[in-house]
């Protein structure tokens, strides 16, 4: 008999437009294929896009959802009527609700983390991060099980937040791919045609939600530090930057059009670009958790050159030489490794797919839950 699980997701994930939304949507899709899963989320979700699970849009789509006590009464009734034994909350924000339901309904409470939240807000200059730290620590200690996005986050929780070791399990970001895709050449042809990129020009990719400060800073590093070094090297290439909400001061990168930079905005199918690219660059110097775009690039058999901070959370042993890590702010070495790796293409190893295929990840998650 499949385990009965309820999950609380406090923001829109369907349709998804960011790596974080995509991560939760695909986790639920694969978890629902292996369990009896109901997701309670916000009213602005398109419930028609769910796969393998049921979604109940019971939560408000504004900040009031974080203080809506009526959710407790509605969910406690639902959990008891359906015989649900396990409750997952995505991120610690609805921890107060999870704690109440754990106490009242006698369910196993699982907090599915995606980074150390207070560190992420501290890194982007939010002055209220100490309050979030206190709350996050309380929520994680209240939970029966904590799903950590990476081994680094797990050890931080144990050593810095005093979370018990035996309640922490690494449940990483994943991919729906179980092996190397076979259509990279076809995808490259489509992208080259769309952007008038010549056959002798390598395609280098960066993408992300560009209003997020770490991603905006990465774009600045690309156009001001990395790209001039590549131009001086004589390399034939184009850098494609994808993503919505590029800050106005970049002026849509118009001044770099004649400097090998192509800005696309939000593209309808980012997987097409991951497959088309010869390299993915990740000059991220702040932020927490695992960088989902890095894992996606590797999964689509695209070599990644990353700054050290940007590679945190990704298993380097599983990724092999497909992931190249450079010290933060060492843009000269970063540019040299781009040139070197373009001359030495290799495939993503099978060990990567063993670790990052969603089917394996959700099975591991289910195996941690008591019967």
> What is the gyration radius calculated from CA atoms?
21 Å
> Numbering strands along the chain, what is their spatial order in the largest sheet?
3-2-1-4-5-6-7
Number of discrete helical segments: 14
Number of E-type strands: 13
Q: Encode the helix/strand succession as letters.
A: EHEEHEHEHHEHEHEHEEHEHEHEHHH
Approximate strand percentage:
15-25%
Total separate domains: 2
User: How much is the average pLDDT?
Assistant: 96
CATH superfamily of the largest domain: Glycogen Phosphorylase B
**Euclidean distance between termini CA atoms:** 10 Å
Report low-confidence residues grouped into runs of 5 or more.
none
Helix-residue proportion: 40-55%
Q: Classify the oligomer.
A: single chain
Shape-level CATH architecture of the largest domain: 3-Layer(aba) Sandwich
Biggest beta sheet summary: 7 strands, parallel
What's the CATH topology label of the largest domain?
A: Rossmann fold
């Amino acid at each position: 008999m499949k385990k009965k699980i309820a999950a609380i997701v406090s923001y829109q994930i369907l349709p998804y437009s960011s790596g974080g939304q995509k991560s939760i949507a695909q986790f639920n899709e694969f978890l629902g294929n292996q369990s009896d899963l109901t997701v309670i989320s916000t009213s602005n979700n398109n419930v028609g896009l769910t796969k393998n699970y049921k979604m109940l849009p019971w939560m408000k789509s504004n900040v009031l959802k974080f203080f809506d006590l009526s959710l407790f009464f509605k969910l406690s009734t639902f959990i008891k009527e359906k015989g649900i034994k396990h409750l997952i909350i995505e991120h610690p924000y609805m921890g107060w609700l999870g704690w109440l339901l754990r106490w009242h309904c006698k369910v196993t409470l699982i907090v599915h983390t995606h980074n150390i939240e207070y560190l992420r807000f501290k890194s982007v200059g939010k002055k209220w991060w100490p309050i979030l730290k206190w709350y996050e620590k309380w929520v994680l200690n209240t939970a029966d099980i904590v799903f950590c996005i990476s081994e680094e986050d797990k050890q931080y929780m144990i050593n810095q937040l005093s979370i018990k070791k035996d309640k922490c399990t690494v449940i990483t970001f994943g991919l729906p791919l179980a092996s190397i895709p076979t259509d990279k050449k076809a995808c490259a042809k489509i992208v080259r045609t769309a952007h008038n990129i010549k056959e002798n020009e390598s395609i280098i990719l960066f993408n992300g939600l560009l209003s997020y400060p770490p991603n905006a800073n990465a774009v600045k590093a690309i156009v001001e530090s990395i790209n001039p070094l590549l131009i001086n090297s004589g390399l034939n290439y184009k850098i494609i930057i994808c993503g919505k909400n590029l800050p106005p001061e970049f002026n849509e990168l118009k001044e770099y059009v004649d400097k090998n930079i192509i800005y696309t905005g939000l593209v309808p199918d980012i997987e097409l670009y991951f497959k088309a690219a010869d390299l993915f660059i990740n000059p991220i110097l702040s932020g927490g958790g695992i960088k989902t775009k890095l894992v996606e690039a590797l999964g689509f058999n695209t070599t990644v050159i990353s700054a050290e901070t940007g590679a945190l959370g990704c298993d380097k042993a599983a990724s092999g030489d497909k992931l190249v890590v450079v010290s933060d702010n060492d843009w000269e070495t970063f540019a040299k490794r781009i040139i070197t790796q373009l001359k030495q293409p290799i495939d993503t190893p099978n060990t990567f797919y063993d670790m990052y295929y969603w089917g394996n990840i959700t099975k591991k998650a289910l195996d941690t839950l008591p019967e």
